[in-house]
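Data deposition worksheet. Section B asks for the primary sequence of the deposited chain exactly as it was used as input, without tags or linkers unless they were present during the calculation. Section C holds the resulting structure in token form. Section D is free text for depositor observations; keep each observation to a single sentence. Incomplete worksheets are returned to the depositor.
Section A, Depositor: J.P.
Section B:
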Amino acid sequence: MPLSRANLLKAFDRKKVVEIASQTARIKSYSGDEAEIAEWTADFMSDLGLEVSLKEVAPRRFNVIGIWRGRGRGPSLMYNGHMDTNPAGEGWTRAPLGGETDDNFVYGIGICNMKAGNASFLHATAMLKSTGFEPEGQVILAFVHGELQGGVGTVNLIESGIRADYFIVGEPTELTLLTRHSASFVFQITVLGKTRHLSKREDGIDAVVGLEKLLPRLRALSFTGAASDEDGQLNRINIGVIRCGVSRELFDWRPQQLADVCVVKCAGRFAPSQNLDQAMRDIQTLIDEIEREDPTFKAELKMVEENRIFMPSFHVEHEAPPVVALRNAHQAVTGQTPKVGMHTPARFFGSDAAHLAKVGMVGVLYGPGGQFNTMPDERVAIAEMETASKVYAATVLDIAGSIR
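Section C:
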């Protein structure tokens, strides 16, 4: 007899999903060293009875793939989640790697991005397994490294030949079905001056002054070529790193001298109707404008490609099968119609969805968390993980099985 959605949802266990999320939050997995979290994830999926492969792509950098083969008579579905996290910044009142919980939240660095989503899908798989469900189509759980370097782990996954008809990426969308997001790239501008001692400052060219002219205009820059106002909303530049000093080695122990080199690294975002070449030309045009206005201003622009790759933009139609399945599942679980589109700050994410879609897979982003992402005391509401677990399980049932 086919498994009913109602009976499936009864298999949810709040204590277990919190335990999974809390355990993963205690494992340090800053981008660049995902070995320990990969081993933990591989062991967990093995205990679920999946076929598990643990592939070391670079020293201490792993992809972990769990395959639930099913009967081979239906469409295949991939869950894609990255294991790497951002580093913890200042201002935490809880241990970033403590995996602390209270009645409402699980806390920890990376719990939003995206250990809560990963925990929710692992528990969704456990829910399905506990009912004796066997999928018609193959279900793939792909946990990857290096999403924060532009998706190097998922690109390696694709190059290894792993494919599915449909996918879900569990980024923290605040349970919005995110169907469009920006492209993600990193660039660097080096502002050049001429150093002198502060006693003869008038005879030098202060690169810091040049940088001050550049930054407000850079923040306000929108790239050309957006096909719609909606696409225009996906334009943004963030100034993330500034270093100034003497010479290109940026010596910083002599503040009595004018800085003759300032380096600023920025993250850029643009829409599906725009492209990287044009975005870089737009930035160069801004630099050229300032140089014409001030002959002492000199700057060099380049892409930052060390240890990272370009992450394309993403778009999927609202009536695509995985979007419809997730929308129906969310409504069945919550009794409410979900938001579909780009009604969330997650529209400025880059994500592995772009790489998966580029090779012909069809999918959507949907995951718990987001409100408290990348901030001190990062946390995700347990209620959101409950919803995500149930929605993921019901979506697998819909796409890879049959419901009644």
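Section D:
The mean pLDDT is 96.
DSSP finds eleven helices and 16 strands in the chain.
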